[in-house]
Automatic annotation (TrEMBL):
GO biological processes: tRNA splicing, via endonucleolytic cleavage and ligation
Entry-linked PANTHER family: PUTATIVE PHOSPHOTRANSFERASE, TRNA 2'-PHOSPHOTRANSFERASE 1
Role, per record: Removes the 2'-phosphate from RNA via an intermediate in which the phosphate is ADP-ribosylated by NAD followed by a presumed transesterification to release the RNA and generate ADP-ribose 1''-2''-cyclic phosphate (APPR>P). May function as an ADP-ribosylase.
Keywords attached to this entry: NAD, Transferase
Gene name of the record: kptA
Single GO molecular function: tRNA 2'-phosphotransferase activity
Superkingdom to which the source organism belongs: Bacteria
EC top class, as a word: transferase
EC number: 2.7.1.-
Pfam families attached to this UniProt entry: PTS_2-RNA
Protein name: Probable RNA 2'-phosphotransferase
InterPro entries from the UniProt entry: Ptrans_KptA/Tpt1 (IPR002745), RNA_2'-PTrans_C (IPR042081), RNA_2'-PTrans_KptA (IPR022928), RNA_2'-PTrans_N (IPR042080)
Organism: Comamonas testosteroni
NCBIfam families associated with the record: PRK00819.1-4 (NF002014)
């Protein structure tokens, strides 16, 4: 019981950290730079002022234990940012990379008609998010409802000039996946 409470608390903290580092830093009066970095000490001060006192050690544990490695510290530890998933404008500075031949995207069946009309588009995020494994794609898609799995011909996309990035936590990112590269599994 105690453990599950602790893990619920950690999940709630992680969700709040996602909110401020990806979507809404102003919620706690935090400022991010153009690459999405917050000063670690400012983040801790803003968390404390907003009634969420967090020690540096707690924050380090949260970053290290996060199930999807959603956050990173800079090498000197003075800054922290989300690795991907932003809705606010940030320039992560990722280098374009050659993707694996095939990538996967999990979505909900109710989105399929729109997806097969206009392709996968980035919605509220900066990029379309793609996974290397069916398992991860299935988890991502199930968040939205009844799962539909799509296979993406990433090799052909790349060959035809589409640019791919890989976030520090292994998510593949691209601007759009046109219909001709999609296969419903
Ligand atoms: C769908 C999580 C209609 C798309 C995950 C998805 C991921 C369309 C939804 C990350 C569409 C957007 C991102 C179109 C795409 N018409 N619907 N043309 N094109 N969609 O949450 O990929 O836990 O923004 O299929 O692990 O589900 O936040 O994207 O169902 O990496 O770290 O529109 O979020 O990471 O939903 O998930 P989302 P996503 P975190």
């Amino acid at each position: 019981m105690k453990n599950s409470n602790a893990s619920e608390k950690a999940t709630a903290r992680s969700k709040f950290l996602s909110l401020v580092l990806r979507h809404s830093p102003q919620t706690i009066g935090l400022k991010l730079d153009e690459a999405g970095w917050a000063q670690t000490d400012e983040l801790l001060a803003c968390l404390a002022r907003s009634g969420r006192p967090t020690s540096l050690q707690d924050l380090q544990t949260l970053v290290a234990d996060n199930n999807k490695q959603r956050y990173s510290f800079s090498a000197d530890g003075k800054r922290i940012r989300a690795n991907q998933g932003h809705s606010i404008k940030v320039e992560l500075g990722l280098d374009a990379q050659r993707p694996p031949a095939v990538l996967y995207h999990g979505t909900a069946t109710r989105f399929l008609d729109a997806i097969f009309l206009e392709g996968l588009t980035r919605q509220a995020r900066h990029h379309v998010h793609l996974s290397e494994s069916v398992e991860v794609a299935s988890q991502v898609g199930s968040r939205h409802g009844k799962l539909a799995l799509l296979q993406v011909d990433a090799a052909r996309m790349h060959g035809e000039g589409h640019v791919f990035y890989r976030s520090d936590n292994g998510v593949w990112l691209t601007d759009v996946v046109p219909v001709q590269y999609l296969l419903k599994l």
